[in-house]
Design brief:
This protein is an alpha+beta fold. 16% of the residues lie in helices and 11% in strands. Keywords: Hydrolase.
Length: 95
């Protein structure tokens, strides 16, 4: 099995560094309604900076041949509630 870093180095010529004038589409898939909060997350093509959902990545790879993607996945973090749920009893305005 090949090393992932060797695979990345061999495809480094296709990776572009974004400039301030480039638009990076990372909020939603350009073909479907997948977002980073979707089940598979989003994959950003590092040559065109277009976002693709889990189902559309293979289509983009076959079309462009780009092998390097940035995977963005957001998950909700459960926050423990440390304080008690006590409602205020008095409202002081101007005191």
């Amino acid at each position: 099995m090949s090393d992932p870093m060797d695979l990345l180095r061999s495809n480094l010529s296709r990776v572009r560094i974004p400039e301030p004038t480039n638009r990076i589409y990372k909020q939603e898939c350009c073909l479907s309604f997948d977002t980073p909060r979707s089940e598979g997350g989003l994959f950003i093509d590092m040559n065109t900076f277009l976002a693709f959902g889990k189902d559309c990545v293979a289509w983009n790879y076959e079309k462009t041949g780009n092998k390097v993607y940035l995977h963005i996945k957001q998950t909700k973090k459960v926050v423990a509630e440390d304080r008690p749920l006590k409602k205020p009893t008095l409202l002081g305005i101007g005191t």
